[in-house]
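Kindly review these tokens for lecture notes.

. . .
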Amino acid sequence: MLRNKQLAAWLDEMKTLCQPDALVLCSGDDREYNEMWSLLLDRGVAKRLNEDRRPNSYLVRSDPADVARVESRTFICSEAERDAGPNNNWVEPTAMRATLNGLFSGCMRGRIMYVIPFSMGPVGSPIAHIGVELTDSPYVVANMHIMTRVGQEVLDALGETGDFVPCIHSVGAPLDSGDEDVPWPCNPNNLHIVHFPASREIWSFGSGYGGNALLGKKCFALRIASVIARDEGWLAEHMLILKITNPEGISRYIAGAFPSACGKTNLAMLIPTIPGWQVETIGDDICWMKFGDDGQLHAINPEAGFFGVAPGTSMDSNPNAMLSMTDNCIFTNVAETDDGDVWWEGMTKTPPAHLTDWQGRDWTPDSDEPAAHPNARFTVAAAQCPVIADEWEDLAGVPISAILFGGRRSTVVPLVNEARSWQQGVFFGAIMSSEKTAAASGKIGELRRDPMAMLPFCGYNMADYWGHWINIGRGDGAHDGDHDGDHDGDHKGTKTGLKLPRIYYVNWFRKNATGKYAWPGFGENSRVLKWIFERCEGVGEAIDTPIGNLPAIDALDVSGLRLDPNGVAALLSVEIDGWLEEIPLIEGHFASYGEPVPTALHQELNWLKQRLLEAKQEAG
């Protein structure tokens, strides 16, 4: 019997609507996990991998029509369209509820409704929040076992009166008497991933895959949590969290936001190349930050596992990720080797002579299509990561010293740039971009703006989200977004006692005149982290420039690297003309969000333009 009356009433309502054959309250234990795999194996959608090569691991092949998040079918149903903003698909809530009631009516006939009580974050943490997902998918249950904390401990923490985020999911494929089930049931023609920010609800219909179905992930951890964070005065971010320790044993914690294909997971599990330095992982994807009594932002990784993109992951690019998935792992839409193991593009320099591809077909290196789907995934417990930090589940979280924003830019943006203030740092995050096409030397390519790497994941108007960030720096919980900020570089909040993280804009992808990457990246990025660490310690040298504080040439440790001194200087240079060319693009970016853009960001843009013009004039 459920003690929480709100949960019991909602569950009765959803049972009546969805009409499942039975209901199972999930325990989160090994017996239940193994039972889910028995069901999936019997259905023919899953295969147990070679026990000697990949113990207790499974391969799953989805329907080819259900392979990734579908942003065009993802909706934010706020009361007013303005609150959803131009960054979201909006539908009026009453109209959407009518649509969903039609879709969900009888959607679980012939299936079991699994009730998954889960905690985002360590159970009992003041930064954690509880959700309950109802689903008719054993695959979802198995993945939620790894990605969240599931079971009675969560219900105990919820108690009789605790709040939770209600999440209802269905593959949208009811079974009438005599119907034969398919290996991967889904309903892609009626796909809906819907969020109601006011009531904190998530409804997902038609997909069994990834962030469409594992509702604790992007749906709760970012879209709904970002709204809760706005209302309560904290931050829910699409960020990694890492711990960096210097040779003297001093540790600091850094969060970082990077769009896809910008090395986020690699950085979270980085192996430093500089002697005596160590990097450990707190989280690879989501970061929730709340102010502690010490005035610092403390962060938790609200997830319990990694749901990573497999293609491109290798012992060269990310050995710690590879070592994390040696056993107890779920692989979805990867290729299978002839000896019952897994493979994907980029895993080895030379592909095997024969594979079974992600659709179950014979594959050889001469095949026209990739062996693994480009969005193929691995699901594995974070605790299996060989560099997971001891404190990754500390209830109080870890204090954040620095926040990184980064994109993929071949020109203009330097290797690393420190914001003079919190406000300028928010400006950096708001203008984050990556090139969609290769940029000609000295010219700006076609840019895709992805502010704070949150464009697909912010649960409300992105301009109001920027205002919330500005107000976090004030520490007063107001949401007018018009704070002028300061430019003294001390990164202290305007409210007494706040110690705000320093903010950095990084770019591992600068190219030289020959079109080759000017920075080696991967483990060498530890050299940039070292300078950031030293800045947080108050010892790293920086030069004041029109765009922010750049490392002094001698301050960046490039010992042992065969880099031309001129190349290092170029990595840390200010391309005045390039930045001036970008000013109108940033103006257009802000204009696309209209009036809600905070005055503070317009001020930062004006100050940047003014400083650049002054520098250009001084240069003659």
Q: What stands out?
A: Residues 543 and 550 are 5 Å apart (CA to CA).
